[in-house]
Write a structure and sequence with these properties.
The complex is a heterotrimer of chains A (432), B (253) and C (494). Chain A has 2 domains: 271 residues, no CATH class; 49 residues, no CATH class. By secondary structure, chain A is of the alpha/beta class. The N and C termini of chain A lie far apart (44 Å). A 10-stranded mixed beta sheet of chain A has the order 2-1-5-8-10-12-14-16-18-20, with helices on one face. In chain A, strands 3, 4, 6, 7, 9, 11, 13, 15, 17 and 19 form a 10-stranded mixed beta sheet that branches. Chain B is 42% helix and 28% strand. Chain B contains 10 helices and 12 strands. In chain B, a hairpin with a 2-residue loop joins strand 4 and strand 5. The model of chain B has no long low-confidence stretch (mean pLDDT 89). Classes of the chains: A alpha/beta (432), B alpha/beta (253), C alpha/beta (494). Chains in contact: A-C, B-C. At the B-C interface, helix 2, strand 7, helix 3, helix 4 and strand 8 of B face helix 1, helix 9 and helix 10 of C. Strand 19 of chain A pairs antiparallel with strand 22 of chain C.
């Protein structure tokens, strides 16, 4: 069987005419069928080949669930009793998930349910908004499988007592596992939430995760979002995190990529209201043959918005880091302040960095800047440390850790930060 | 020369000037003092024509013309000069070139021929001595990378080149060490004549040790609440602004 | 303004500035006149016969015709590139006259025999074809429509071994050099417009600087489109042998016409070991009128190769004209320790669109490149910087610094930045910075307060903004370029 047939069969088996999502799924499938998987000649995919990841060995669809004990053993330290959303092979599993916060603050349910109950209008209106920004088959393909997704709502004026951790388990014990998680988040007016995503490969085979996460924030809402990718070098990922500020709000995203075969992250900040503020931080710390590609979009549609973006990369071995940042300032978005910076250090003699920061500006009263650097470790600093008796290996590790700290410090939740720091520290000493 | 009557102005929705009255005659030096936020710099900006400030009432007569009707550049060409509190940096535009443009714009306005390179250079050399400004500074980009003192000296130098009728010095002393202050003040004193006038806006009395005013006005809460001679400045220095605040509040009660 | 240590000189420059500022208020595109010259034209449209016609007109050897035909056949298989940030109606390549030459009674044997109408045209453009009258010592190759009409100072240059002539003459007189270098940097198959150019180019300039020679004067080509409905496809080739130096200038103008006219040129530069080539352009093709009608479509491929170690190629461009500009002067840094530079000011006003930038391809070790791009957008125009900095795997210790700044005047225009940076070597150091802002209100107010009106203030600030690039131009060009900047932004602030 070829890939197309495998996907077609899975799609047919999983779609139900009774779901409120069936029209959306059908439309997505049609788009996918028309567009196909993006090739390198697609400008947004010029550095990242993903077609070859889709082989006829690919296994889609839900299979056996892991035990509760297995799930527990992968919880982020300190967040064991926190809110958790469990995905297995791209399907939301309510019975393994856990809601810590009170129902008056937090609602978590399947996207399918939400498409039929009081949240149906929201789902109908906001599900699939990211497709406007990604007219490639990848985003559409996920849409076709949206029925397995989850819906989450933080209620008006409520601050969650604990982060919501989303764990994506992929079981590759029978071969190349293909998962397509879908998440829709609704942060109501004045609400505040932290959402963390983490990815786990339960087998020794390859995995391929194609995710779409869409978040809407309302008036005065605050969202902290952290994505930690350390699934191992047998795992590939294509994911879109699409954050819309429906009204004046604060959104803050940190993306950390530590391993993978081919990793592609799209992060979109759509500023649809005046006086919005968004922050985007990213760290990619790569080794081996990993290719990590971060594409970000800040779309300023309204005046007086502020955005700040800093992505940093350290590439060792044969790894490649890609950064593509776009800042759009539309005609009415006067008084926009938008800053973007991308800094890369190449360690490995076979490593590479491709970066493409872009500004597209249609309003005049703006202050926008971007900068990027690709280089090596500061030799003066290295020498200074060595002159104080620190070995070159430690001196390098020290400087790289300092380089990474700018991003790490942006993680506000202390447990998540400690977890990420531990992964990074271990890695830096290990590779050098 | 300058007659301000019941001048009122605001920025955005905030009333800053609430009825200023002031008359300045040729040959006079007036000092405006007052605590932070009293409206001193606003007055300077309004007189120079900064658009962010909206004049909501009153009138200003300058040498027989309605000052408020003139564009900023025409006010300058009529002989009004503002020494900025924060002189603006313009990258890539040499100071010399900038001043030459300004001088010849004014000459054109007055129906005079532009100065040729040699004449301009001669005048420039002469005036440079006044404020002890260095040639090298003048060939650099306008105010870019200048120290605080260099910027202020450059303002006074431009004043010397443009020979205004009325010069407004907006907190020219702020951020200056005593040597720089003396140089700036000497420059001003050299330029004083029976035909021109100065309005010195300052927070501190110390500048007035060097530029001795004929009149001192205290601005508080958008109004001139006291006027007097240089002794008033000394009194303020001694007692502080709180004393004025207290007195004014007592009166209004 | 230029920075001179000599203050007297600076004074003189300021006088020039003075004149420039005065012109702002009352200048339009002043090169828009049409000269009434009888022309010898090819029939409209493009087929193999057109290519053969051009080749036959120029009495070309068969290898040249073969080169053209090969390019033409390849072109037929290609599609117009659509990746640039430009919108314009599809060009009908059958609606263009591909060859138009001013009719001369006899071929001029000396400069004295040039048609007086032609001579007048160039005088009007400020270019004298009369060697005696030239004080500045710039050798000129004047190209009108499809052919070179005059090259000055040929004899004097030949004394030091410098060859400076029209491309047509070079094909006849120096076939070995042409065969060796033509298409060596920009192959006919490179892109749609290079293939088109290779098939139908009618003339252009050839310049050869022998080993160790420092060219005694600035060389320049002046391009003029005159005839209606014609496309201009010229070709320039500069070869600088070991240890040589040349500074080359290029200027261009066209009449005001309601139809768009196509200009698709190719410039190739070869710099051998320790050679240095400085190429400056002031591009002032007719930009179209205030409603966006007419103007030149300027699709140009310019590329140089630093073939030898320690060689250097420097591009400087001031782009004020054309309704559409599609142009990326590039340097391939093949030799170790070679240097590539790109300095650009691009101004767009009214409905102009520019998509311009550079490519710096680092192949050799210890190579250096520097990019300074200043974009100014006004009116309803769109101005894009597009650049590539690439460091190949073996290009150890490569360095690049790029600075791209955009200035916006008015809220109906756009400024865009598309830099591509690709590094495959871990000893490389690449830095890119970009800013976009509008002219500061406080800067304008400061000027106003000194008696300078807003329009003059804007001109001052813009010249300051562009200064780093202007400084790279030879002095005569700098003055002209400054005037152009001011003129092309006339009426854009109010």
């Amino acid at each position: 069987m070829d890939v197309k047939t495998i996907l077609q069969d899975t799609f047919t088996a999983s779609s139900s005419a009774h779901s409120g999502l069936s029209a959306f799924q059908q439309e997505s499938w049609t788009n996918f069928s028309n567009w196909g998987l993006p090739a390198l000649k697609h400008e947004e995919w010029r550095y990242t080949r993903i077609r070859n990841l889709f082989t006829d060995k690919l296994i889609a669809g839900q299979h056996q669930l892991p035990t509760k004990e297995t799930i527990s053993s992968y919880m982020l330290p300190g967040l064991e009793s926190s809110n958790s959303i469990i995905f297995v092979n791209g399907y939301f599993v309510p019975e393994l998930s856990h809601i810590q916060d009170d129902e008056s603050s937090l609602i978590i349910k399947s996207l399918d349910t939400a498409s039929k109950d009081e949240d149906a209008p929201f789902v109908k209106q906001n599900l699939g908004h990211s497709a406007r920004y990604h007219t490639d088959g990848i985003n559409a393909l996920n849409g076709a499988f949206a029925a397995g997704g989850v819906y989450m709502r933080v209620k008006k004026g409520k601050s969650l007592t604990a982060p919501v951790a989303i764990y994506h388990f992929s079981d590759s014990s029978n071969g190349l596992r293909f998962s397509q998680p879908r998440v829709l988040v609704n942060i109501e007016a004045g609400a505040q939430a932290t959402v963390v995503e983490h990815y786990i490969n339960l087998g020794s085979g390859d995995t391929l995760t194609n995710e779409v996460l869409e978040i809407c924030t309302s008036q005065d809402a605050v969202l902290y979002y952290i994505k930690i990718q350390d699934e191992g070098n047998a795992s590939s990922h294509t994911g879109t995190t699409h954050i819309r500020q429906l009204a004046k709000s604060l959104t803050h995203a940190v993306t950390i990529t530590l391993s993978g075969k081919v990793v592609r992250n799209n992060l979109n900040m759509v500023m649809e209201a005046e006086h919005g503020e968004s922050h985007m931080y990213g760290l990619y710390l790569l080794e081996g043959e990993t290719l990590a590609d971060n594409h970000t979009i800040v779309d300023n549609a309204m005046p007086h918005c502020y955005s700040n973006e800093l992505y940093k990369g350290i590439m060792d071995g044969h790894s490649t880091g890609v950064f593509n940042g776009k800042i759009f300032v539309r005609k009415d978005a006067q008084k926009t302040n938008a800053y973007q910076s991308n800094k890369n250090i190449l360690i490995g003699s076979n490593s590479a960095a491709n970066t493409k920061p872009q500004l597209e500006i249609f309003a005049d009263d703006v202050k926008c800047s971007h900068g990027c650097t690709i280089g090596k470790l500061d030799e003066d600093a290295l020498f200074y440390l060595r002159a104080r008796g620190i070995s070159i290996e430690n001196a390098q590790a020290l400087l790289l850790h300092a380089f990474a700290m700018d991003i790490l410090d942006q993680i506000k939740d202390e447990h998540v930060r400690a977890f990420a720091d531990q992964l990074i520290s271990k890695r830096l000493l290990f590779t050098i | 020369m300058l007659k301000i009557e019941n001048l009122q102005a605001r920025i955005e929705e905030k009333e800053i000037l609430k009825g200023i009255n002031l008359e300045i005659k040729p040959g006079e030096v007036h000092a405006i003092m007052g605590p932070n936020g009293s409206g001193k710099s606003t007055l300077a900006s309004v007189l120079a024509g900064r658009e962010a400030y909206e004049v909501t009432g009153g009138s200003v007569d300058f040498l027989g013309k309605d000052l408020l009707e003139l564009s900023p550049e025409d006010r300058a060409k009529e002989g009004l000069f503002l020494a900025f509190q924060y002189p603006v940096e313009i990258p890539g535009v040499s100071t010399t070139n900038f001043i030459k443009t300004a001088v010849n714009e004014k000459r054109k306005y007055q129906g005079l021929d532009p100065l040729d390179a040699a004449q301009f250079l001669r005048t420039m050399k002469e005036k440079m001595k006044l404020v002890q400004i260095d040639q090298s500074l003048l060939s650099r980009s306008l105010n870019e990378g200048f120290s605080g003192g260099e910027k202020k000296r450059n303002e006074i130098f431009q004043m010397a080149m443009l020979e205004p009728k009325l010069a407004i010095l907006d907190e020219t002393d702020s951020g200056l060490d005593i040597d720089a202050l003396r140089i700036v003040a000497n420059g001003v004193n050299e330029l004083r004549s029976a035909n021109n006038a100065f309005l010195v806006v300052t927070h501190y009395q110390r500048l007035l040790d060097y530029i001795v005013p004929d009149f001192v006005h205290v601005l508080y809460n958008g109004r001139i609440v006291r006027s007097g001679t240089k002794e008033l400045a000394l009194e303020l220095e001694e007692k502080g602004y709180d004393f004025i605040k207290a007195e004014v509040e007592k009166e209004t009660v | 303004m230029l920075n001179f240590a000599d203050s007297k000189l600076e004074q003189i420059m300021q006088e020039e500035q003075e004149d420039i500022l005065e012109q702002i208020t009352n200048s339009d595109y002043k090169y828009g006149f049409v000269t009434d010259i009888e022309a010898d034209e090819a029939p409209m449209g493009l087929t193999e016969d057109t290519v053969k016609f051009i080749s036959a007109k120029k009495n070309e050897p068969s290898w040249m015709l073969e080169y053209r035909l090969k390019a033409f056949r390849h072109w037929q298989t290609m599609e117009t590139p659509e990746w640039a940030n430009l919108t314009f109606p599809a060009i009908n390549y059958q609606d263009i006259i591909y060859y138009s030459a001013p009719k001369q009674k006899v071929a001029p044997n000396s400069l004295d025999e040039i048609d007086p109408e032609l001579r007048k045209t160039f005088e009007k453009l400020g270019i004298s074809l009369d060697e005696q009258k030239r004080i500045s010592g710039i050798a000129v190759d004047a190209v009108i429509d499809s052919v070179s009409v005059a090259t000055t100072f040929r004899e004097e240059l030949s004394k030091v071994g410098v060859i400076f002539c029209s491309m047509s003459d070079a094909i006849q007189e120096h076939p070995d050099l042409i065969k060796k270098h033509l298409g060596s940097v920009v192959p006919a198959t490179d892109n749609y417009f290079t293939a088109l150019n290779a098939a139908v180019f009618s003339d252009g300039s050839f310049c050869y600087i022998p080993k160790g020679v420092r060219c005694p004067m600035e060389l320049s080509t002046y391009f003029r489109i005159n005839a209606a409905n014609t496309g201009q496809f010229e070709r320039t080739l500069i070869v600088a042998e070991e240890g040589s130096y040349v500074s080359y200038l290029e200027g261009c103008t066209a009449p005001m016409r309601d139809e768009n006219q196509l200009h698709a040129a190719v410039v190739e530069i070869v710099a051998m070991e320790k050679a240095e080539v400085k190429y400056s352009t002031v591009q002032n093709w007719y930009p179209g009128d205030k409603e966006g009608k007419g103007g030149i479509y300027n699709f140009v491929t310019k590329r140089g190769i630093c073939a030898g170690n320690h060689s250097k190629i420097s591009w400087t461009q001031v782009e004020t004209g054309s309704s559409i500009t599609w142009k990326y002067p590039s340097v391939i840094l093949k030799g170790d320790y070679s240097i590539g530079e790109f300095y650009s000011v691009a101004v767009t006003n009214n409905y102009q669109q520019a998509d311009t930038g550079t490519k710096m391809v680092h192949l050799g070790k210890n190579t250096r490149s520097r990019i300074v791009s200043k974009g100014i957008s006004a009116g309803k125009s769109q101005n894009s910087y597009r650049g590539l900095v690439s460091v190949a795997k073996n290009a150890s210790d490569a360095r690049n610094f790029s600075q791209c700044d955009s200035l916006l005047l008015g809220d109906k225009c756009g400024a865009h930045t598309f830099p591509y940076i690709e590094v495959k070597n871990n000893t490389a150091m690449v830095e890119h910075e970009a800013t976009t802002s509008k002219i500061g209100e406080d800067q304008i107010f400061y000027c106003n307060q000194r008696g300078i009106d807003t329009e003059t203030a804007v001109a001052l600030i813009i010249n300051g903004f562009a200064k780093e690039v202007m400084n790279q131009l030879p002095m005569e060009f700098a003055v002209e370029a400054q005037k152009l900047l001011a003129i092309s932004l006339e009426g854009s602030v109010g």
